[in-house]
Amino acid sequence: MNKFELDTPALLIDFDKLENNLAAMQKIANDNGVKLRPHTKTHKTPYIAHKQMRAGARGVTVAKLGEAEVMNAAGLDDLLIAFPLQGAAKMERLLRLAERAAVRVSLDSFPVAQAISDAAAARGIKIPFYVEVDTGLHRVGLAPRQATRDFVRAATKLRGIEFIGLLTHAGQAYAAKTLDEIAALGKNEGALMVETAEMLRADGIATPEVSVGSTPTARFAAQVQGVTEIRPGTYVFYDTMQVHKFACVWDDCAQTVLFTVVAKHPDRLIFDGGSKTLSSDRGPDGAATFGTVVGFPHLEIYALSEEHAHVKIIGDGAAPNIGDKVQVIPNHACAVMNLHDQFIATRGDEAIGSFEIAARGKIR
Amino acid sequence: MNKFELDTPALLIDFDKLENNLAAMQKIANDNGVKLRPHTKTHKTPYIAHKQMRAGARGVTVAKLGEAEVMNAAGLDDLLIAFPLQGAAKMERLLRLAERAAVRVSLDSFPVAQAISDAAAARGIKIPFYVEVDTGLHRVGLAPRQATRDFVRAATKLRGIEFIGLLTHAGQAYAAKTLDEIAALGKNEGALMVETAEMLRADGIATPEVSVGSTPTARFAAQVQGVTEIRPGTYVFYDTMQVHKFACVWDDCAQTVLFTVVAKHPDRLIFDGGSKTLSSDRGPDGAATFGTVVGFPHLEIYALSEEHAHVKIIGDGAAPNIGDKVQVIPNHACAVMNLHDQFIATRGDEAIGSFEIAARGKIR
Description:
The structure is a homodimer.
Chain A: E1 10-14, H1 15-32, E2 35-36, H2 46-55, E3 60-62, H3 65-73, E4 78-81, H4 88-100, E5 102-107, H5 110-122, E6 127-132, H6 146-155, E7 161-167, H7 179-202, E8 209-212, H8 218-221, E9 229-230, H9 240-244, E10 255-264, E11 268-271, H10 275-278, E12 292-293, E13 299-304, E14 309-313, E15 325-329, H11 333-337, E16 342-347, E17 350-356
Parallel strand pairs in A: 1-16, 2-9, 3-4, 4-5, 5-6, 6-7, 7-8, 8-9
Antiparallel strand pairs in A: 1-10, 10-11, 10-15, 11-14, 12-15, 13-14, 16-17
Helix pairs in contact in A: 3-4, 4-5, 6-7
């Protein structure tokens, strides 16, 4: 079926673009001699995770235990849960998962380290862990150098967890304005991590992994000697935000939402989906619009209701009519994926299949 | 189980507050002699729709055909689809639904009116329709008075649809700053609608329904003589935005998300859920924060990552520790409901059951 014959709204993933994106990021990893452990929070779809593995990825990253369980149930068996897990229910699920997959975690505090260690030790196993370092995002993570070294020294004494290295996410790159700035942040991210890892090694603490990377910084951080792993997520689809951060060009964007025009006024249109389809994510920059209308540069999505996109017609370019279909590149691919139960795969204009977004909504 | 023992994040609905909210809005409708046809896009949950019906509602409103199908499958049989339906696939589904439920639609253009009429006439039935009037939101809808009258005159000639009245949504109230302003908008909404209905009646066009109402304006619009129906949605739960629009007080807010603190720094905390749990909806006012932490007025959710809430500690009030649980009243209840597959019902501190949000993600 031609994709423009689909009922709308419909979430479309262009598999040709997707596969190009996977290959290009894998080449960056290979060329720099680092492992690619992509973050599956973007697509939440086991089928795409398997594509990443076949392209050369060495395990995957997830944000939540629930995502790890879905990926494992679909055959993925090397999983990093990059989130500080808390609470008895999660400890039990983590240990169950560790019985059937290679599971590693990241953490940055004693309460979390102690809880995981106690639970694992009681079961007679060790959970491998990275220590998360804050290289500038100021979200989770310890300050690089001394603060991280002091924590690692103490955490390596815990019996139920096994230190395997350092991890960071330079999400501050999303606030950068120029590519030079992003490159500098990526290099700095890598350099701070390698320096801290060297301090640990000088202390006699084996530090095999130095794991970095957001989609914008990955290609720069990967070049830093001593980095061993990159974990970009959004590169699978890219989106409006990534174009603005110079991570890709418009033609790389593999994720679109197909809408129908349902109302037309002299100065504006209404599409048949809003924040429940595109998300109200403006990104860290606070974008003025809510996505990019493909092929209509003079249409501007200036507001979203829950089920309506409000679209301004700028100047006198041609505007579609009621009943016409349009494709929109969302602001933030990850947020959009989490709103939809399925996506339609396309090649060119042809719809070639429907895939369940199996880890959607796995908030725990 | 005590709700604070639940694994997190968890979406909680306080049934005592919910039932108070349902009764209070029903009383407003009854006292003013208007029908209440609540919008189920807020809760997307058949169980709550049935509660609304038992409290006295006369049918329900939905935003999407997919929501109507879910509600009908759960036993709701009087449904208004308040959206301009487009496309052959939707016509087929609409007619199927009309075979098993009383379905009415709203529309505001000839392409939509003609398509529904043609499809229904071919099946030998008539679909009842409201004409949507734009009383100031400038989303969908025709201008009141002449523009609406001209359209209705022509649309009533179509054989497959049956005119039953006028409908509007005064969503512009969400941009109002004072309760006086909201009251004036509600009164104006009602007055414009009644005036336009009177013009139609003077033309000999039977206009039984005059349907209005957002949650903030419902109680004011309901007082206007000649209004027959109100369609608020968010009043079931309320939220931070509704408190700021004077529609309720904090204690009325029935929807919260339970989080665990997973990181603590001197000046800030991290909770274990972000935009994929709370949504990045700031509301039409562009709120500076992403929800309200219950019992901690000096904690401010200043940013959301996908799975992290970034929380500032203002001043020197007590802050919870890693592992502690906190409840957050979201900015926008409807957006949050659409992110979750289930909610946990509570009475007081007790969790009393889990309910599927069956119409979540029904974007078509």
